[in-house]
Amino acid sequence: MLNFSEPMNKALNNIAENTEMMWNFADDATDVLLGDLNTEIASTPYEIVYQQDRVKLKYYKSEAKVKMKTPLLVVYALINRETMLDLQPGRSVVQTFLDNGIDLYMIDWGYPTRKDRYVNIDDHVNGYMDDIVDFILKRESVPKVNLMGICMGGTFCVMYSALHPEKVKNLVTTVAPTSFDTDQGLLHSWMRSVDVDRMMDTLGNMPGDLMNFGFLLLNPARLMIDKYQSFAENMNSKDFVENFVRMEKWIFDSPDVPGATFREFIKEFYQENKLINSKMELGGKRVDLKNLTMPLLNIYGKFDHLVPPGACDQLSSKVGSKDVKDVCLDTGHIGIYVSSKCQKEFAPKISVWLAERDEENEEVKSPLAVKKKTAKKITPALQN
Amino acid sequence: MENVNENRTDGIIDSEQIVGHWINNASRIWDSIVKKSVNGKNGGGESLFSNPDAAKESYKAWEPAMKTWNEFASTMNKKEMIDNIVEGNRAGTENFHKLLKSGLDGFSFFQKRWLESAKNIGGIFKNHHVETMGGSEVFDLFADIYNKEISKFLSIPPLGLSREYQAKFQQVIDKSNIFHVKLMEFLYFLYIPFEKSFTVVQDSLASLADEGSLPDDAKEYYQMWLKQLENHYMSMFKSSEYTSALGKVVDAMSDFVAARQQIIQDSLKSFGVPVENDLDELYKDIYTLKKRIRTLEKDAEKSK
């Protein structure tokens, strides 16, 4: 006769232990979720020193003893927000740059409204960016700036540097798409089947929520199921929950993209691939990549599913510069900024590269020659 | 009283005369009742009314009406008049029958057209080979049926003063139907990897069970399923069918939103509220002006 009592007892014992474990977990998770959570992002202090329409310029002053002479202007993409570069203490590209003696300027593109639907790429590059660069040059009394672009911001920086090489000392592009004739990434094949004219005529601007949904569809299994399963498993950890919520705050903080800009980006970049072939025109002038003669550091992610390596690695062979370096990191599109591993590789590498190409470093002795007209200091507590 | 039997011949009663006799007799009866009530029996004697003089006056007022009624009754009693009435009834009945017949004929005509339309739909089914149809082809079938047999009713040109608004309303209905079909097709594509991953995992579990190596940890089952799901999504997203469905749903959404916006803007305009199109024109002007000013400012600065 078969004896069921032992396996039955074992099973019941397992259930009892698991139930107790589950109750303890639920108890801890409740304490965490109902407790005091620090989910603040972009906490490094800055000033708004310039504003034009919805576009603001943030200034982060470095307190390092040895500083670079040339300030760095960081241009983020129009998709999502630049706050990702300063996600949290210990994972802040901004802080790393400041610690390495770089005076940092960062463009905040703001939140476009329907009023901005006619603002195109030329307005962003030759309008806002050029005005901001001129402002920095005057404010810092320097002949050129260092320029760093991220994702679509990197694409803008490439165009700006090709059109205004006299104002750019060194160029850094990170996960910046410049070549769109690739099937490596899903976005590249999807964008070719979209009638962007019809969309923008109807919607005005490209809604941030719709873009977010599109990005989630790139990997729904991981981004819509596994991510939250992982959260559920780690809900009892305060650190995990805080980091998770910070990422959620950033990832779903999606401004709309001005309709004219989105239309041009899809048609002239994704569908016609004009930039890498030096056929792109802005403000009546051709963007010739051979005019990009300043040193170029081009960083991209090996596992980037949004901007695959094939979209980034052709730039270095098309520019006129002789001082060109490609760096491929073993990470994805966002991990390049926020993963703890890349914190030691990414921003420090850029700092070293810039320092090597800066003019002689100066110790801080006196205030800058031109008196700065400072705006109200914005602290994180005020910015919300 | 007239004797009905006077006109009876060969035992057959003439029905036309019956009505006439009835009317005449009824008039006489009422006349005599009224007179006796007023004047008493046989013209003398006590009146039934307490105020006979008033009753007489009252009767005098009624007398013309009674005479008119008697004249009318006599006229109606005449054979020619009765013949006309009967003829009129017969004609009315015939006309009613004609009306009914033409209505039924019209209904038959439309019924025939509906049956033809249904036959066409059946033909579409046949052409699509329903028996061997895959998942997403059902949506192509429905789109085909809708475009060929149903959409045309929404394209009937409207008439009248409000024709423009009617046309816009028809557009919204049409675009909404198309959008919902395309959306269903797109959602179906998103569902396919779930179905496939479950099937694959079931087969994997069956093999593992046969080998006796089923995992103990529930998490391993989850990871097994998730990996399959991810792989199926990746392969589906690269397919031309998916990108085609994506393009179609985006286009359909744009068309539907544009049509809906038209209706909303027309409604808002009637309340005097500025609408998006008005504001867009304003934004365009502001944008152009700002650009010109910026260019002039830069030129002015260069020339300093």
Brief summary of the model shown:
The complex is a heterodimer of chains A (384) and B (304). Chain A has 384 residues and is of the alpha/beta class.
Structure description:
Chain A is built from 15 helices and 15 strands. Chain A has a single domain (46-383), classed as 3-Layer(aba) Sandwich (Rossmann fold). In chain A, a hairpin with a 2-residue loop joins β5 and β6. A 9-stranded mixed beta sheet of chain A has the order 13-12-9-8-4-7-2-1-15, with helices on both faces. In chain A, strands 3-14 form a two-stranded antiparallel sheet. A two-stranded antiparallel sheet of chain A has the order 5-6. Chain A is 44% helix and 16% strand. Chain B has 304 residues and is mainly α. Among the domains of chain B are: 14-77, no CATH class; 135-273, no CATH class. Chain B has helices at residues 15-39, 52-77, 79-127, 137-154, 163-211, 218-237, 240-270, 276-303. In chain B, α4 (137-154) packs antiparallel against α5 (163-211), α5 crosses α6 and α5 runs antiparallel to α7 (240-270). Chain B is elongated. Chain A binds chain B through residues 53, 114-115, 117-119, 123, 127, 183, 186, 189-190, 192-195, 198-199, 201-204, 217-222, 225-226, 229, and chain B through 190, 193, 222, 226, 229-230, 233-234, 237-238, 243-244, 246-247, 250-251, 254-255, 257-258, 261, 276, 279-280, 283-284, 286-287, 290-291, 294.
